[in-house]
Recover the amino acids of this structure.
């Protein structure tokens, strides 16, 4: 992804300065601290991005998430993909092109976690596919008749949430050596599963997005609950689908 800097580091601080806790620069810091306590973003892994109007606020790479500060934020002009604010020394998140893929499909926020439950679910789906002599690349995570499924929307441009008897499907893509190299396969999964609000990355984690940051957060929480439940169900030989 080609991006350019068009603003000086010190002249654009007004973009990340606010006493409003809901301002993206502040909100991302709060989310990162909360996600750290959940074990979603350990070791500086994972990331969060929020779109407000034509501005994209992105947590940087390499900063411990529990110590994140508004001054650490990158701010991008969405139409041009130019950085309006780029903190000195810090690196842009390698997740940025994947966040942009979600924004291009109407998302208002995108969250990337390294949840252990997400990773384990991808391994269990892989194991099942190999046992059934099926192509691992075609397998996705599927589960139904779990109450928490109601926390996931039906899909883009569709009204309401999934129901108890609906089947939740979350596509899985293969991991790569570099985060940005996931972009093409993420976009392909979005096209193949147009109603999905999440994509799992095998042996890596999950990307979750929503119409706004509140929805992205609740969907990430709902999915993590479902992933953990699915792992526990497998311990008792309980099926994910009927």
């Amino acid at each position: 992804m080609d991006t350019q800097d068009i603003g000086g580091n010190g002249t654009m601080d007004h973009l990340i300065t606010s006493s409003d806790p809901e301002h993206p620069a502040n909100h991302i810091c709060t989310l990162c601290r909360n996600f750290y306590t959940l074990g979603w973003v350990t070791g500086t892994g994972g990331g969060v991005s929020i779109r407000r109007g034509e501005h994209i606020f992105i947590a940087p790479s390499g900063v411990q998430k529990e110590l994140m500060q508004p001054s650490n934020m990158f701010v991008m002009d969405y139409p041009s993909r130019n950085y309006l604010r780029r903190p000195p020394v810090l690196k842009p998140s390698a997740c940025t092109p994947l966040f942009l893929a979600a924004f291009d499909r109407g998302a208002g926020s995108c969250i990337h976690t390294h949840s252990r439950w997400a990773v384990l679910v991808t391994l269990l789906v892989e194991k099942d596919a190999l046992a059934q002599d099926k192509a691992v690349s075609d397998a996705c995570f599927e589960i139904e008749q779990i109450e928490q499924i109601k926390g996931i929307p039906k899909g883009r441009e569709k009204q309401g949430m999934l129901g108890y008897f609906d089947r939740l499907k979350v596509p899985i893509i293969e991991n790569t050596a570099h985060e940005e190299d996931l972009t093409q396969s993420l976009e392909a999964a979005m096209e193949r599963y147009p109603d999905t609000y999440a994509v799992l990355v095998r042996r890596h984690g999950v990307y979750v997005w929503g119409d706004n940051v509140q929805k992205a957060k609740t969907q990430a929480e709902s999915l993590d609950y479902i992933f953990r439940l699915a792992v526990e169900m497998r311990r008792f030989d309980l099926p994910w689908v009927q």
Remarks:
- The chain is about 30% helix and 20% strand.
- The CA atoms of residues 74 and 86 lie 5 Å apart.
- The chain has a mean pLDDT of 95.
